Structure formats: C-alpha cells, structure tokens
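Archive record:
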Amino acid sequence: MNYRGSCHCGKVEFDVEGTLDGALACNCSMCGRRGSLLWFVPRSALRLATPEADLATYTFNHHVIQHRFCPNCGIHTFGEGKDPAGNAMAAVNIRCLAGVDVDAVPVQHYDGRSR
C-alpha cells in the first residue's frame, strides 16, 4: 500500500510504500518527548516529494540516526539510519501519514532509555 505523509504545515511531504502492520514506541530521551510511533521500512520505500534542502536534521548520542523534521513547524516526519546488517532504513512517524487510524495499528514498546 502507498501512503502520503507530511508535516503539519505541509512544507515536508513524502510517499512511503509497504505494509503497515505495526509500529514501535520508544522511550529514549528523544522519542519519549516527541511521542512518535515509528514504522520501519527500507529507505528506498520512502520517496520525498519535497526537496531534501527543505528538511532539517538532528542527531544525538552515537550520531547514527538522522532525525528529519520540518524547520518551519518542527514536526518530526521520519528518521534515517542503517539496520544491524547495514541496510539503509527509514523510521516513519505514522502520526504523519494521511488516513491512518493510529489506534488500529499494533504498537510494540521498546526500552531505548536503557540502551
């Protein structure tokens, strides 16, 4: 299935393709504050409809994940990094996807705070 996502103001827009069969809620210092629900897909499944220059990036801790957000409204739309096997991945904030009932998506809780 194809999903359209965006930030609040619409400056950042993207499409992502895949089967949304679950999301992850992490309690690390970043995720616990922003409250996103993350769906992990291959980075190739996410296509920006916005120029890359219109995104802002934040990294912290080990600096291996690029947290991408809108510099205008501040909404975190997705993150980018590599899985343990070295594959490029995207962590899409499903709260930014149009038409998705987030309450119907099974959520796995991850203890990122202890890592």
DSSP finds one helix and ten strands in the chain.
